[in-house]
């Protein structure tokens, strides 16, 4: 038995004894005068009570109230937005004065590389010439932006951090302003489409102490800049992964009555020491509450029966599904304080209602809650979090109850419109036009007759005019081998807003339709993803192949709606494309889905193209343009799209607000 349990029992015993003694003294006041011989013992008891009470006060002040913190599944999961890293660096530099030199060096290098790409694209020149133009300041008429790449230090930079603070100049603020001005100038020079206007005027000078302490006008909003809202990160429950119908997570005392206990002990002790019946009486009331909290019955949550129903039997990704949860108390006793939270999977978004309920349930009674979620691909079974407390709230039991009602969300692989496949084909018949003559529909050429040629291909007009047999060849149509390749690295899980789907979701949704269309065109289609979780499904055909692909879209970890966990490879770099490159057929075309969030994805497309694969990049554009970091990443992505197109690689720059089929039609017109 631990010391705390022994101490609690001793306190209960002392409290009960004092309660009885005090009650007796109140009922028979003469008993007080009958205890002179025990004055020292009573005095000692009073001192012990006071000291113990002060100890409890200390525990209460240290916040030792233990209650289960429930998750917030009704809030959407927070995905990072493009440019968040740049904004964070600037925030750390200007507000927190952290990593000033490291962040500035990183931002300068990043901006210089981008500027080289922009100037190269505009001037159609080499990298060396682009750098010369930048260093000469010939790329813009804006003096502030031109100086950024000329290596000229400002007066604030010359003064250094301490000098700038004392002199009233602000080195970091000056750098931030020049950075913003240069980004805006690159937008103008690079002809990048942005919708928001920003003010690049330097902010008003901050006071000495504001600069010293890193304060700014929007300090109050700084903590809201980055938010993660996965279920585990917002609750005290370590995990919600359970395969048991019922799992007892914890049974604990909440220590909610610590304050009352402390007051009671101190009051009784002081009353005993000073022989003040009023204080003793007040203390006995508190002791009675403490004993009541300690001896209350433990809530029995194992008797709860939970049923979950959906209004859709076979939902597809993106569908809205209404969930009805019924909880019935068959424990045989009342549950006076019951908190229920349906732990909706992270990839779902609650669109209507609230998946939580706070109620009390008599034995045999039931409660119900309803809410609507937008579902995402995958197979799910999720628990109901139950937090039950007794009447006093002093004892709390936390349990996970998982009803036998799972949900399976599988994409349909529907056929939308034809997908433009390039002329890299196989020996099998298909829909891809080739330059070879033979059987087909479109006229190709006329050749000499060969024995065995079918009669319906004889050129009878030539026979009638010249008397010589000739055979008509049509353009052969063959099948292509196509590998749909996903960029599912953590950097690809970015979205345009907190409640917006991330780029991987956009990619998988569009690819499921594309897979069905390519399959319907008679091509051999496969799937792959480059990430630390290998994903490879070789190109093939047939109904079984189609069904396997459908299940893979829904269940493969590499295509999960949730970002992969960061993995430590002990400084050993592993190229995410290694396993794909080993298995990719030499004749396979590649449809690469990537938001082009960094240079690696563009480099993958270039390397595959140089190895002989015909590459088509489908890039969902999830960039926004409100902050300087977001505007910078939009320019970078535009530069990558232009880089790939310059090398003859097809790129569909796709706005996810529009259907991909419309973008495909535009692309077909552009590539025709």
Automatic annotation (TrEMBL):
It comes from the Archaea. The chain crosses the membrane at residues 12-32, 38-57, 262-292. The keyword ATP-binding does not apply. InterPro entries: DUF58, DUF7269. It holds the Pfam family DUF7269. The keyword Transmembrane helix applies. Keywords: Membrane, Transmembrane, Transmembrane helix. Residues 445-614 form the DUF58 domain. This is DUF58 domain-containing protein. The lineage of its organism: Archaea, Methanobacteriati, Methanobacteriota, Stenosarchaea group, Halobacteria.
């Amino acid at each position: 038995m631990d010391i705390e349990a022994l101490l609690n029992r001793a306190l209960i015993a002392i409290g009960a004894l004092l309660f009885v003694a005090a009650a007796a003294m109140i009922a028979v006041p003469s008993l007080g005068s009958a205890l002179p011989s025990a004055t020292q013992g009573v005095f000692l008891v009073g001192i012990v009570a006071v000291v113990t009470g002060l100890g409890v006060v200390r525990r209460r002040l240290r916040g030792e109230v233990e209650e289960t913190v429930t998750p917030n599944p009704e809030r959407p999961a927070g995905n990072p937005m493009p440019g968040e890293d740049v904004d964070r660096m600037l925030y750390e530099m200007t507000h927190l004065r952290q990593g000033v030199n490291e962040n500035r060096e990183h931002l300068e290098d990043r901006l210089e590389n981008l500027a080289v790409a922009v100037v190269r694209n505009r001037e159609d020149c080499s990298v060396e010439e682009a750098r010369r133009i930048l260093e000469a300041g010939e790329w813009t008429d804006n003096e502030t932006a031109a100086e950024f790449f000329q290596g000229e230090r400002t007066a604030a930079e010359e003064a250094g951090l301490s000098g700038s603070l004392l002199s009233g100049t602000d080195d970091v603020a000056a750098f931030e302003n020049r950075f913003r001005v240069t980004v805006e100038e690159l937008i103008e020079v690079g002809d990048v489409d942005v919708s928001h206007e920003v003010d690049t005027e330097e902010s008003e000078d901050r006071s000495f102490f504001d600069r010293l302490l890193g304060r700014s006008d929007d300090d109050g909003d700084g903590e809201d800049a980055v938010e993660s809202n996965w279920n585990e990160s917002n609750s005290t429950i370590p995990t919600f992964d359970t395969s048991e119908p019922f799992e007892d997570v914890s049974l604990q005392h909440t220590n909610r009555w610590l304050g009352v206990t402390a007051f009671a002990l101190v009051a009784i002790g002081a009353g005993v020491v000073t022989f003040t019946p009023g204080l003793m009486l007040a203390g006995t009331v508190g002791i009675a509450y403490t004993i009541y909290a300690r001896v209350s019955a433990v809530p029995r949550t194992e008797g709860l029966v939970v049923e979950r129903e959906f209004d859709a039997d076979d939902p597809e990704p993106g569908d809205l599904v209404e969930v009805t949860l019924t909880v019935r108390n068959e424990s045989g006793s009342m549950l006076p304080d019951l908190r229920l939270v349906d732990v909706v999977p992270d990839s779902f978004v609650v669109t209507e209602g609230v998946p939580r309920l706070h109620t009390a349930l008599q034995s045999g009674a039931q409660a119900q809650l309803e809410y609507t979620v937008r579902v995402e691909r995958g197979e799910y079974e999720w628990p109901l979090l139950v937090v039950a407390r007794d009447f006093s709230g002093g004892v709390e039991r936390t349990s996970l109850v998982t009803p036998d009602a799972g949900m399976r969300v599988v994409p349909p692989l529907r056929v939308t419109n034809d997908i433009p496949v390039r002329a890299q084909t196989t020996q099998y018949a298909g829909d891809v036009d080739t330059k070879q003559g033979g059987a087909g529909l479109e006229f190709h050429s006329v050749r000499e007759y060969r024995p065995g040629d079918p009669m319906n291909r004889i050129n009878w007009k030539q026979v009638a005019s010249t008397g010589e047999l000739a055979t008509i060849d049509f353009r052969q149509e063959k099948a292509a081998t196509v590998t749909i390749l996903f960029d599912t690295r953590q950097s690809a899980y970015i979205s345009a807003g907190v409640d917006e789907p991330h780029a991987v979701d956009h990619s998988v949704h569009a690819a499921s339709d594309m897979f069905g269309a390519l399959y319907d065109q008679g091509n051999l289609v496969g799937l792959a993803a480059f990430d630390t979780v290998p994903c490879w499904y070789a190109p093939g055909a047939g109904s079984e192949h189609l069904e396997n692909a459908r299940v893979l879209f829904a269940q493969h970890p590499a295509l999960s709606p949730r970002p992969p966990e960061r993995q430590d490879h002990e400084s050993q770099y592993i190229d995410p494309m290694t396993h794909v490159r080993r298995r990719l057929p030499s004749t396979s075309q590649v449809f690469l889905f990537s938001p082009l969030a960094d240079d690696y994805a563009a480099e993958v497309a270039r390397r595959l193209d140089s190895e002989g694969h015909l590459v088509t990049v489908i890039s969902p554009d999830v960039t926004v343009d409100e902050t300087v970091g977001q505007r910078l990443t939009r320019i970078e992505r535009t530069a990558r799209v232009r880089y790939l197109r310059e090398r003859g690689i097809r790129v569909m720059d796709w706005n996810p607000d529009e259907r991909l089929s419309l973008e495909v039609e535009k692309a077909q017109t552009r590539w025709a």
